[in-house]
Design brief:
The protein is of the alpha/beta class. The protein contains 14 helices and 15 strands. The strands form 4 sheets. The protein has a 6-stranded mixed beta sheet with strand order 2-3-1-4-5-6, with helices on both faces. Strands 8-7-9-10 form a 4-stranded parallel beta sheet, sandwiched between helices. It has a 3-stranded antiparallel beta sheet with strand order 11-14-15. Helix 6 links the parallel strand 7 and strand 8.
Length: 402
């Protein structure tokens, strides 16, 4: 009888040990997310505080906990500076036990933070940055490139503009890795589609006065002036091109245009423009329902970056739940194994290279007469299937089997 009680007691102790081990699978008893974004600069409208709100909504909609442990959201401004971003990331990982960093709206900051995260075996969920080296030669085992990339922008907008008759191009390029990658990807599509690139000019990032660059584009005689920039730079370039009368004889192609840009420009200026997007708030009932909730808090409809922050974090939380741990290697394996099915993407999949491949959308900006209510800005012209919208995994990425 004594031996039986001893065995029962030992069994109880082992059960308790097993339970404690299961609970301990969440490091620090908290799942902490850092939203590292542009809060004050050229990309603050398309990401910024809206990305923080999207992250908070994702945590709340998940019940505020995962594996019984609280989800905590913190945020900081990387100021679009690589050194600032990497320093914040290192501090977050070392001192504040951040499990994952989300958004990273500029390519320079994303590429600076990714190796820090890989060194610490923590996850980055990139929604705002676009450059294809993120899943190419700079890829890591701990990164997800979630929302879009320069390739998807090029095959969407670039191809559509050439097919509409825009055969000759001149590029105004943001002078850093994002702008150069966007120009390179679009140039390949333009040439493959039967068009011709007449030249380019590099503009410092950020830029408020585009007059000299627009005059060079005008002098080229190109039918299309391709804007390989984003955010406030795109807005300023389009406004000044209209003010100078350039758009009377030449057309603009915004190669990365956000809903927030159209809102700032107004439909009289932006009407007829083609653009490629991963998300549009008014596309269907699901997207409208979530976007209206977002609007209640932010007083603006979400951009694809902000919607991507929400979706990527929800997928991350689901992966933690499925893995039974917040261990980065096990969570990444689940994220790549599980499809994404929500208002943002249907049957999206994260490849070995970390790129989330999903359908994209070619849209055209409505005229004022076509717009029936606030933020009614886009006509969805075409769904671009994931295999067409994104490039296949590149063996240059160490995570891709050769």
């Amino acid at each position: 009888m004594r031996r039986a009680f001893s065995n029962m007691a030992l069994g109880g102790i082992l059960i308790l040990i097993g339970t404690a081990a299961a609970v301990a699978q969440v490091s620090g008893d908290v799942v902490k997310i850092g939203v590292l974004t542009d809060m004050t600069g050229a990309y603050s409208d398309l990401a910024g505080q809206g990305s923080v709100i999207a992250a908070q909504m994702a945590a709340e909609d998940f019940g505020g906990k995962v594996l019984g442990k609280p989800i905590v959201i913190i945020s900081a401004d990387h100021q679009n500076k690589a050194d600032v971003a990497s320093n914040i990331a290192r501090k977050w990982y070392d001192e504040e036990q951040v499990d994952a960093i989300a958004d990273l709206v500029s390519s320079s900051t994303a590429l600076a933070v990714m190796p820090v995260a890989a060194e610490k075996k923590r996850i980055t969920l990139i929604s705002g940055a676009a450059s294809t080296p993120i899943e190419g030669e700079k890829c890591t085992a701990y990164n997800v490139h979630y929302t879009y990339n320069t390739y998807s922008m090029a095959v969407g907008t670039g191809r559509a503009v050439v097919q509409k008759g825009g055969k000759t191009w001149f590029f105004i390029v943001a002078d850093y890795v994002f702008g150069k990658t966007l120009e390179a990807d679009t140039s390949k599509v333009v040439i493959a589609s039967g068009g011709k690139v007449l030249g380019d000019v590099k503009a410092p990032f950020p830029t408020t006065d585009f007059s000299s660059y627009l005059l060079q584009a005008q002098a080229s005689g190109a039918q299309i002036i391709g804007l390989a920039n984003a955010g406030a730079d795109t807005i300023n370039a389009i406004k000044q091109a209209n003010e100078f009368g350039i758009t009377k004889k030449q057309s603009l192609a915004g190669l990365l245009v956000f809903l927030s840009d159209i809102h700032s420009l107004g439909l009289p200026v932006a009407k007829g423009m083609y653009l490629t997007t991963a998300f549009y708030w008014d596309r269907n009932g699901e997207s409208r329902k979530w976007s209206k909730r977002f609007f209640e808090r932010h007083k603006k409809m979400p951009t694809m970056v902000q919607a991507g922050v929400y979706s990527s974090l929800t997928h991350y939380f689901n992966a933690i739940k499925a893995a039974g741990t917040d261990d980065a290697d096990k969570v990444m394996a689940k994220m790549k194994q599980m499809p994404v099915n929500d208002f943002f993407a249907r049957n999206g999949h994260i490849g070995a290279d970390g790129l989330h491949r999903h359908d994209m959308y070619l849209a055209q900006v409505k005229s004022p007469a076509e717009s029936k209510y606030p933020w009614d800005y886009y006509k969805i012209v075409k769904t671009i299937p994931a295999p067409e919208a994104f490039q296949p995994p590149d063996p240059i990425c160490p995570q891709v089997k050769k």
